[in-house]
Structure formats: C-alpha cells, structure tokens
From TrEMBL:
Its cofactor is FAD. It comes from Volvox carteri f. nagariensis. The lineage of its organism: Eukaryota, Viridiplantae, Chlorophyta, core chlorophytes, Chlorophyceae. Belongs to the proline oxidase family. The keyword Calcium applies. This is Proline dehydrogenase.
Amino acid sequence: MLRLGTLFLRNPAPFALGPTLIRFPPSCFPPYLRTRSIPPPRPTLPTLKDHAAIFEGRSTSDLLRALLVLRLCATTPFVTHSEALLDSARSLLGDRIAMSAVQESFYKHFCAGKEPADVWARMNALRAHGIGAILDYAEEEDLLKHCKPRQQEQEQGVTAAVAAAKEVEAGGGGAEARAKGKGRYAVITARQPLGGETIIQSRVAARTYDHSGEDDECERHATAFLSAIDTAATLPGQGFAAIKLTALGDPGLLEHLAAAVGSVRELFQTYDLDGDGYITQAEFEECFQKVAAEQGSTSSVDERSELWRWLDPEQQGRIDYISWTQRLNLAHMPELAASLEQQARATGPGRPWELSPSERVQLQGLLRRLERLVERAVSKGVKLMIDAEQSSLRPAIDHIAHELMRRHNTAAGGASGPGEAVIFVTYQAYLRDAQQRLADDLDRARRERYTLGAKLVRGAYLHLERRRAAEAGVPSPVWDHIEQTHASFDGCLEVLLGAVKAGRAEVMMGSHNQASVEAAVAAMSKLGLEPEDAPVYFGQLMGMADNLSFTLGHHGYKVFKYCPYGSVEKVIPYLLRRVNENQYILKGGKQDVALLWAELWRRALHDPNQSPLARVLAPLQSSSSSSVA
C-alpha cells in the first residue's frame, strides 16, 4: 500500500485526487510543464507527524531510551534535584555503576560518543535521512572540584559582593556608583560570586572552563577542537565544528577585554558631541584637548591631525562607530578604555583597565590557538562556529570573530569581495540589542566586503543573565517576556534571509521551535532560496526535535544535528543543562514524546520485524483484510 506524504521532491507538480494530494516527480511531465514560469507550490512540512518515517532505522531499544529520558526531563522534581540525585548515586553506588547508568540513558541519547571518530556511527544513521553533523567538543572539567579549595575565598567574595550591592542600592547606582568602582565594573565578574555561587560553580547555567592549569588546559582543549575539525572534514557533505573561546583562554581575561570594548564604545559616544552617530574632525579635536587637559598632558595641532588621519584614512571628514572600531586593535582596547575612565575620574577598587604583562601573554596564547583552529578549518573546508557565551564576554568575542571573518569570509584566489563564510558568530535573540547588533554587523560586512556568517539562536543563559544583572544593579540585557524574544528572533531571521538572498550572509538557524522552522521554510520559498543551493542551514541538538530534523532532511533542506562528544565523566555539565531545559520538554518536547509513543505502538501491533506480538497478530490482520476485500 502506498504511504502518501513521506516523499517530498523539489518543484513537484500536484495532482488532486479527492481529498488527498498526490505529488508526482517533474520527470513525469513534458518539458514545457517543468519550466520556471510555473510558480512552485509553497513548501510545507507534511510529514511532521509521520513517526514511521521520522524513526525509520532507529532500534526499538533506542526509542524506549529516548522516551524514558524525555519523560524524566519533563518531571519537575527530577529536574530540580538532578545534580543532587547524581551526586547521591555516585556516593551510594560508586562512580562506575552511577556513570554506567548515565551512559546507558542520558549520555547515549544526547551525545555521539567518547571520541570524534565515534560520531561516524551516529553520522551514518543521520546521513541516511539527509542530516549532517556539527562536531561539538563537550568535555568540561568538574568545576566544583576546582572550586572547593577556594571555598574560604568564595565566602569572602560573597560577603564583599553583598556589601557592594547594598552600597550601590543605597547610593542610587548609576554614574555615581560606577565612579566608586561599583556597578558593572566591579561587583560582578567572571570569577566573582553570582547569587551565592560563582559562574564556574554553576555547572547547569553555562559551559565555562576553569583555567587553573592555564596553558596546558587550553592546549588540551585546542587539540580536541582540532580533532573535531579533522573529523568533520571526513564526514559526507559540508562539515561544521563548534568552538568556545573560553576553552582557549581565561574567561576573566575575555571579560576584561569585553568591558574595555564597551568602554571604547562609550568613548565614541563621548566624542560624538551632537549625538548624530558621527564624529567630525572638529568634535574630535575639541574632545581630545579636553581629555588631554584633564589628564595633565598637552598635544599639538600636528599630533591631533595625524591621529585624525589615522582614524579617517579615506578623508571623509567624519567617522561612525564602525569606522572607529575598524581602526582599533583588541590588545589596545584597555588603554583606550583607560582614557575614558580617567576622563570620568573614576576612583575606588575598580579593576585597572591596562593589561598586565601576564595578561598580554595570555591574550597572545588565546589568539595563537584560535588561529591554529581557523587555519585547519580553512584548509579542510570546515565551517567554524564560535558559540555564544555570557553577554559580559560577547563584545570581545564579537570583535575577534569579525576580524577573522574579515580575513577569511572573502572570495578565494585573491579576488576581492565577499566569499564563502568560514567563520560564524552567534546572535542570541533574547538579548535586547540583537537586532541592532545584527544590522550594524551586516553594514560592517558590506563595507569591509566579507560575507557575514551568522548562527541565530534564542539564547541559553537566560537565568544567568538576569541574576548577573540583578547582582550588578544594572538593567537585564535580556527581554522580559518570551513573546519579545520570539519577535526578536523572527525579525533577525527575516533580515538574515534577505541578506542571504543578496549574497551578503550565510545563516545557521538553531531552533527547536516548529513555528520558527515553518516560517523560515515559507520565507525561503518566497525569496526563491532553493533548499539544496542556498547557504541556509538548520540546526537542532542531538536528542531533541527529531521530528523537525528528520522532516527537513527528508525534504532536502540542509539540516544538522549538534553531535557532542567526550568521556561520560566530563560531559556531565552538558547533560545537566539538557536535563534542565525543562521549558522545551514541556512544550516542543511533548511532540517528541507523542511521536515516540505512536511509533512504539505501531511497531508493537503492526510491525512483525520489531515485535513478537505483531507476528502473532499478523495472520489475524491479514485474514481480516481478506474478508473486507
């Protein structure tokens, strides 16, 4: 019996037969009916509920495991106490038994294996359904072990942070608080307390690497990323690999640089006297003399003119923020930020902006490791995605990413202009400035003639961002309501797909939201972006939203699963974050569970190859069918 709706071909010619729509391939029709003058039908995803097609090739034991894991993830008490339950199991049963239970359940559901080569087995199963893999090194140290020796230091930090927050609250916050070294500059940092725990203690909230071993740990992470790139290059189709900069360098250093970048933006706003978004030469010279006088120094007209020519090499007479940042080197950001601090006459215990000699060495090491990864990705034809992290680190990560895109997302063979995107940077729609940031970045890419590589997600650190902002006494950087995040995501997606159509961007859409995926499919059809040709990629995590991934793959869209790998013991933080994504499980995950139940019942009752009961019932079903005939 022909099962309808399980095969989707591009540009099919529909033929209506009663209430059912049968689709024939174009080859069934004469050439004049296959021309582009006939608009193709709007693409849909009719097999989102076809559980037999979605789970084809997966064993029944695999489906049972998936059902168990998803049901546990939807159980609030289990999610709430997951860390405590794991610690108790390890204490009572021992690490070997506890880790074995984790491996046979959550690990096999959410992870691809221990080594990059282990991805091959999962990849072969995915590839049969048109799904690619994004290699993701998911190992993290047991950060609580690193924190325990510093317990006294942390307790002192908590007391200091609470006192500082009370002082800020009493003083009204704002500029006065920042002038005292409080506010966003001193209260909360990558290594300071966060609601009673440090960021590196919060294993669930975000992936953060501890660097007590410094270079040795960073080099080990870099080696693992290189292995992921090499494995991604050997997989069929386009290879992707994901990296995090906090694995290659100290998060505290990145946060220091990020805050400096933010201050340099404020410095630009200081020089922009009329607030029109541009600095003229007259504004620059007026402010420069004022800053120099407050610092007790002087400058000549020639010195100021020479500096202006450096900032405005095209001699346009004015510069905007993009032009301003184009002329700045990340290593010099702290010194420029120091000018702003001195101008504001900041005092108190705030961290000095200048990089120490050891920090300069750390920065050089981070950039050196990153360059090795980029060179390997370029030589292997693998696209490299720089993952999003906390917003306090984002300015530095973005600055580095755009410099890499400027060098590598250009035409090959020495030709000028945009080319294939090798480097991707992540946009988190739950951040209030996501749309403005995207517009600025597209403008920057257009000016510097490179292709913007963009991964669009909703965001993974919601509670962490809100807690950091509350502790620091500043407005939250994320939207207050989910509807605002949805609107931001939709707006960013519309802009990005338009940029793809114009040849200015490539996009990886990371979403488990069915409405967003369907909207993207409809927008691609409207813009004439062919799934097989357009650089539009869809991504979902392994173990989640299989109905979206497999349906997109069956329809010829470029869809990928994040394939985390690593030893069981060192991917526990990653697994805990998957368990804690309760919002997804309670909403989109319900569809996964319903499809799993439907397929398991189908196999139990109607698939003799999968079920003894079905083999017993098969003759009865056959006899019943014959009687009806």
